[in-house]
Amino acid sequence: MPDSVNTVSMSASAVNTATGSIAVPPVARVGDTLAQVATPSLLLDLDAFDANVERMASAAAARAVAVRPHAKAHKSVTIARAQMAAGAVGICCQKVTEAIPFVNAGIGNIHISNEFVGEARVALAVAMAAHVTLSVCVDDVRQVAPLGKAAQRAGVRIAVLPEVDVGQGRCGVDSTDAVAQLVDAIDHYEGLRFGGLQAYHGSAQHVDGWEKRRDTARLAADRASAYVRFLEARGIACPVVTGGGTGTAEFDIESGVYTEIQPGSYVFLDGHYGSLEWRDDWRFRHGLFLASTVMSTARNGIIVCDAGLKSVATDSGLPRFWSSQQASKPHYRTASDEHGVLELASADEDSAPWLGEPILLVPGHCDPTVNLYDRYVAVRHGRVEGLWPIEARGLSQ
């Protein structure tokens, strides 16, 4: 992404001469310069994106570990296809409905990496299993029976992975007895098969220090390994141990325990992941940006942009100022619905030169930020190369 962009302007609205109505102008068109992209918009730097996808794929392949990227981060069929083209074995989705656009687009291997209950969700999962290779998670025997009966009636086979708690303290069983009960319950149904174990430690991804993150990841892998050994002692092979993410991928790949990893945010490297301590060449590139425009300079020392809470998630911190033609680097201080307030270096600094200035912001948390948009504006070398739909936006049932 270049260090600066030119004045961001919205194309003139098209008037329907027959009805007199005004059409909402497109955010951008292929071939547009960044100056023609309406703000706020979600920009994807394709050079960074391509490098990040290749980096994760090659690192995992070197250790014969599969990559199953998490689509909850990007929610985009185009991105999923790019990941599959780079060698991914499939994708993860966190909710059953989230998987629908990927099923319909022909992504043939999908793992629902979360528990679900209820007749409607079970029916939807079974319907998907008629079209794709589907795996799901359970952590209670009461989740198994409805799925097994429905799969058997439909004549489909679903891989079921008991989830084990390896430190997250959220979902997943925490005893070998519970794992054994789940495996036995799965084995009871012809429409189900034991697919391995889900062993995901979400909070480990966000540990700031490299050494502490490494140690937390190792402990999670050790816990997962203990469950594998328990099953093997009962004569049950564990074909898959899946888990891990962007923050621990380098350790999970080397663990010898995980057969596949589930990174998601690596394709973007949001502000939070970018703030972590990384070693060697494991830092990915920032590829996701908010294009915004300074809309008000009424007070010295303060500039106000058009990207507020409706444009960026703030659960992992406020967005970070990335670039501008201006020499100084404002600090994003507060967000309200439609406004982002940034402080200049000095409270007395004249803010007037910033009016109309385009700026780029790095979101703190990519997943919920992406969920606010209908499309990515995919750019390369300052030109719009594509508009990529975010098909799974809002599908959280």
Automatic annotation (TrEMBL):
Keyword Ribonucleoprotein: no
GO molecular function: D-serine ammonia-lyase activity; D-threonine aldolase activity
Residues spanning the signal sequence: none
EC number: 4.1.2.42
SUPFAM superfamilies to which the protein is assigned, alphabetical: PLP-binding barrel (SSF51419)
Domain D-serine dehydratase-like: 287-380
UniProt keyword Transit peptide, yes or no: no
Biological process annotations from GO: D-serine catabolic process
CDD domains, per the entry: PLPDE_III_LS_D-TA (cd06819)
Database matches in Gene3D superfamilies: Alanine racemase, D-serine dehydratase-like domain
Keywords for this protein: Lyase
PANTHER family linked to this entry: D-SERINE DEHYDRATASE, ZGC:162816-RELATED
Family: Belongs to the DSD1 family.
Protein's name in the database: D-threonine aldolase
